[in-house]
Amino acid sequence: MALNHYLGSLGLVRITPDAGPMVVISYPKCGRTWLKVMLGRALCAHYNLPERLSLKCFDPKRLPLRTRARFPRIRFTHAGTGSGCFSELDRLTPPPDSYPERITLIVREPKDVLVSFYHHILHRTRFKDELAASNGAGAEEDSRNWTRREFYDWAGIQTDADGIATLSSYLRSERYGAARLLSFYKVWTDAQSALGDRLHIIRYEEMHASPLRMLSDLFGFLGMPQIPEQHLRTGVDFGAFDHMREMERTNALNSSALKVVDPSTESGFKTREGRIGGHIDHMTPDDIAFVDTLTQSFGCPFYTPRNVPVSHGSA
């Protein structure tokens, strides 16, 4: 180990990280874990770290001393929109200009996000009255303090005869449905011009269509444009849907971010479907029209009903 790297890891001399800092922001179910796996695996390949650190390498305490000072400072946040965070819309997310780092924003077609998030709430989020049965798995932020019924009442979400929240009611919830997602998107819509080249936007659909190019562009934005293509390919291959599903099934990365909560149903997996346009198998025509109309009313530039690709291919 080089002496200056060792001293730098102890904070005794200053060593500038190879790139960054950067914050990755996303609404839940926009592909954050997928991106994190690909990015983390590519970084592990680049710094000769074991693949088991692919999700945890962003925590400096998890890194070996020889690498810690040089490793890019990257953090991930849902900016107050996590599935267990029950905030009013005017307190949904910190102002974009409050982030001092470079900002990468992940976005996804609203209807696909909403359907995926709906299944997450049903099958992965655990509330106060469900913690004992799940050994605490799936509890996030405020959900530890609310019962499921209290949450549904607060959000105005109706349930069917079996007590299961209906998708149509969830979509129309003013506090937690489409309006919540589109309010988040609007915050970033309004901030784009002010942030300029400090903001990098990744679309989930781009991650599907050209994952290698997406990852290469992200490293360029991060300030590491010369990372070898073989390391990028390692990250992309590691993040393949079937491989991520198997890692989730076995908890191979020892991380709650990629660990199945309820293995008895496909919807209990984080890697649930990984599809573009899959919402059409779950939403009624009225539901689709409702979200499309609301999307237009919010003036969302990321997606409009006219420019959204629809495909039934898996990740």
Give a verbal description of the structure.
The chain is of the alpha/beta class. It contains 13 helices and four strands. It has helices at 3-9, 32-46, 65-68, 110-123, 131-134, 148-155, 167-172, 178-195, 204-209, 211-222, 229-238, 241-250, 285-298, and strands at residues 22-26, 74-77, 102-107, 199-203. It has a four-stranded parallel sheet, sandwiched between helices. Helix 2 (32-46) packs across helix 11. The longest helix is centred in the middle third of the chain and has 18 residues, at 178-195. It starts with a helix and ends in a 17-residue tail after the last helix. Residues 308-315 have low confidence and may be disordered.
Give me the secondary-structure topology.
Layout (H helix, E strand, L loop, with lengths): L2 H7 L12 E5 L5 H15 L18 H4 L5 E4 L24 E6 L2 H14 L7 H4 L13 H8 L11 H6 L5 H18 L3 E5 H6 L1 H12 L6 H10 L2 H10 L34 H14 L17
Parallel strand pairs: 1-2, 1-3, 3-4
Helix pairs in contact: 2-11, 8-13, 10-11
